[in-house]
Amino acid sequence: MAATHPTHGHGTAKHGLATGMMVFAAVMLMIAGILAVLRGIAAIAEDEVFVSTPNYVFAFDLTGWGWIHLALGVVAVLVSMGLFQGSGWARAAGVGIAALVIIANFLSLPAYPVWSVIMIAMSAFIIWALCTPRRGDA
Q: 118-135: string of b/e by CB count within 10 Å (b at 16+)?
């Protein structure tokens, strides 16, 4: 006699993981955005936390970096809200904004090196989570 096996076991687990990855990306993008906003405010206020490197190729004024990080942070928070709602546009925008956060943190590495590396790694995880294919995606 042939045994029948339910076909919904593994597919449901994968779909749950993909959904979990989307929530993970949304939460991480929200945290990264809030931290970028706070970093931007600190840089605009010319806080003493940042190191000044005189001979850096991509030298910007600390206030300029502050505005860049503030703008990226605000956009990241808005995109993360779209991810929480499950918007399709937010997934692509999330990958884009996380990539811009990586670039901005790479370019501002001398100003705050340890935090820049942490934000680069965090943004890489966000991109990975958003690019993980979901069940039913073409």
A: ebbebbebbbebbebeee
Q: Are 29 and 76 in contact (CB under 8 A)?
A: yes
Give the Cα separation of 123 and 138 in Å (integer). Answer: 25
pTM of structure:
0.77
Instruction: Please report the DSSP string for 29-60 in residue order.
Output: HHHHHHHHHHHHHHHHTT-TTSPP-TT-TT--
Question: What is the pLDDT averaged over residues 92-110?
Answer: 91
Give residue-wise pLDDT tens across range 41-98.
988 887 666 666 666 666 667 788 889 989 999 999 999 999 988 888 999 999 999 9
Tokens (6 digits) for 97: 């904004």
DSSP string, 56-124: -TT---HHHHHHHHHHHHHHHHHHHHHHHTT-HHHHHHHHHHHHHHHHHHHHTTTTSHHHHHHHHHHHH
Tokens of 131: 């690019």
